[in-house]
């Protein structure tokens, strides 16, 4: 089959990989001029880790990733107020847990395509006309093509979803936060392999030192702190962060000053995408486009890879009957994704607690995580993947 996949992030190239294994002709379309870099780091484990292993990616991921030792909460003077040893993640996943940049994971997956999948960079699907026996696809720039399937792997703000299923507002569920992330070179202090985090009511900031003298900063704040429209330029993002975080203490004045030289800031709402169906005719959605779980779940990349793997596997098992395969893909994955979304939504309020009491309580709970059996109980529940993926024989 000829398959056009819009979006070369995590889900898109994973699907391209497995479809190519089955001998399909794949076209990837990515709106950026090259694979997106920088951004933010992710925890990577679970079903996604298993699929990465099947793709032979673990050695590369090991080189690119970090084994974080500690999550440390500090007060406005930088003194430790809570936290826990990150060993528990390794213990609960048999050592199959790693932190790495989202963009490094995306590049590793794309690298596994070995240059054998045609990619249109700097372009996007603009229109889709499902003719029943095939789909006619128009692009922003390239000449139109005829394909058998169109897949939307274009993330939280998917254009394919909008073109085929309806406006984003029908499916987006806000978790009440905004998030921003950027990297700075040469920032001091560095605490190697420690996530250092400071929170005041409704606002949280963390830093993690990366290789090559880079430090990653992640800001999360409740929506009520955004007093005007969402910023549309990088300078506006910086102004918002400066206003929202100016008075939170700790290293914030230094971080905000250093931010002025940063570029490629990630800034967005923290939301989920909840849909009743992921397919329509010859079009299907995967990854965040279909069922964004949000950063709160800490597993969106792995889940995106799982959706891609199952979609490719069901197409194979159904002898390329896309109607049957789409139905089985959705049946297998949708309840699992919905459970992940629900547990992330429940956890969201403790992500950047609203009150000083909430922060104190959270810090206290994280101190209890020093006791191994308590840590194993809570973290074990959080990292468990309540699904067994089929072993498709590609
Ligand atoms: C701050 C933050 C922290 C996170 N932390 C974690 C974590 O700890 N662990 C974890 O597993 N996940 C985490 N996630 C979630 C994770 O990043 C996503 O779930 C995952 O990247 C989804 O993969 P995807 O391929 O569906 O979408 P994306 O990775 O967003 O890729 C979509 C691709 O589509 C492209 N695109 C967009 N629009 C178009 C268009 N119109 N045409 C063509 N191309 C287009 C984009 O440029 C991009 O390359 C986090 C997310 C955020 C925001």
What would you say about this model in short?
This protein is α/β, with parallel strands linked by helices. It has 13 helices and 18 strands. The model has no long low-confidence stretch (mean pLDDT 96).
Would you kindly provide a written description of the structure presented here, covering whatever features stand out?
- This protein is 36% helix and 26% strand.
- The protein is α/β, with parallel strands linked by helices.
- The protein has a single domain (2-171, 272-383), classed as FAD/NAD(P)-binding domain (3-Layer(bba) Sandwich).
- Strands 5-4-13-14-15-12-16 form a 7-stranded mixed sheet, sandwiched between helices. A 6-stranded mixed sheet has the order 7-2-1-11-18-17. A 3-stranded antiparallel sheet has the order 8-9-10.
- α1 (11-21) runs parallel beside α10, α2 crosses α10 (300-317) and α7 runs antiparallel to α8 (252-259).
- It is globular and about 65 Å long.
- The structure holds flavin-adenine dinucleotide (FAD).
- Flavin-adenine dinucleotide binds next to α1, β2, β3, β12 and α9.
Q: First CA to last CA: what distance? A: 15 Å
Domain tally = 1
Mean pLDDT level = 96
Strand content: 25-35%
The ligands found in this model are: flavin-adenine dinucleotide
The biggest beta sheet is recorded as:
7 strands, mixed
Strand line-up in the sheet with most strands: 5-4-13-14-15-12-16
């Amino acid at each position: 089959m000829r398959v056009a996949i819009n979006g070369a992030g995590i889900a898109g190239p994973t699907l391209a990989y497995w479809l190519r294994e089955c001998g399909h002709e794949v076209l990837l379309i990515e709106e950026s001029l090259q694979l997106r870099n920088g951004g933010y780091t992710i925890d990577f484990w679970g079903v996604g880790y298993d699929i990465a292993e099947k793709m032979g990616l673990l050695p590369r991921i090991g080189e690119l990733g970090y084994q974080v030792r500690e999550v440390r909460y500090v007060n406005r003077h930088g003194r430790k107020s809570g936290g826990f040893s990150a060993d528990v993640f390794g213990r609960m996943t048999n050592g199959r847990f790693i932190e790495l940049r989202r963009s490094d994971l995306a590049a590793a997956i794309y690298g596994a395509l070995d240059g054998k999948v045609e990619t249109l960079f700097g372009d996007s699907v603009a229109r889709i006309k499902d003719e029943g026996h095939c789909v006619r696809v128009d692009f922003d720039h390239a000449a139109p093509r005829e394909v058998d399937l169109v897949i939307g792997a274009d993330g939280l703000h998917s254009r394919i979803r909008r073109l085929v299923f309806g406006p984003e507002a029908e499916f987006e569920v806000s978790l009440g936060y905004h998030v921003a992330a950027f990297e700075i070179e040469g920032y001091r202090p560095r605490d190697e392999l420690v996530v250092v985090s400071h929170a005041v009511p409704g606002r949280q900031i963390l830093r993690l030192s990366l290789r090559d003298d880079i430090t990653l900063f992640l800001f999360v704040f409740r929506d009520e702190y955004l007093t005007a429209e969402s910023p549309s330029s990088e300078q506006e993002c910086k102004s918002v962060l400066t206003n929202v975080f100016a008075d939170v203490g700790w290293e914030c004045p230094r971080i905000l000053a250093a931010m002025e030289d940063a570029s490629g800031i990630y800034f967005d709402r923290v939301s989920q995408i909840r849909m009743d169906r992921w397919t329509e005719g010859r079009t299907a959605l995967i990854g965040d486009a279909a069922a964004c779980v949000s950063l709160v779940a800490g597993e969106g990349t792995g889940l995106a890879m799982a959706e891609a793997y199952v979609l490719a596997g069901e197409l194979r098992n159904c002898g390329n009957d896309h109607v049957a395969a789409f139905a089985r893909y959705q049946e297998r994955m949708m309840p699992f994704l919905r459970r992940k979304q629900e547990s992330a939504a429940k956890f969201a309020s403790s992500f950047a607690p609203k009150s000083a009491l909430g922060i104190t309580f959270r810090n206290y709970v994280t101190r209890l995580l020093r006791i191994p059996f308590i840590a194993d109980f809570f973290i074990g529940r959080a990292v468990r993947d309540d699904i067994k993926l089929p072993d498709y024989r590609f």
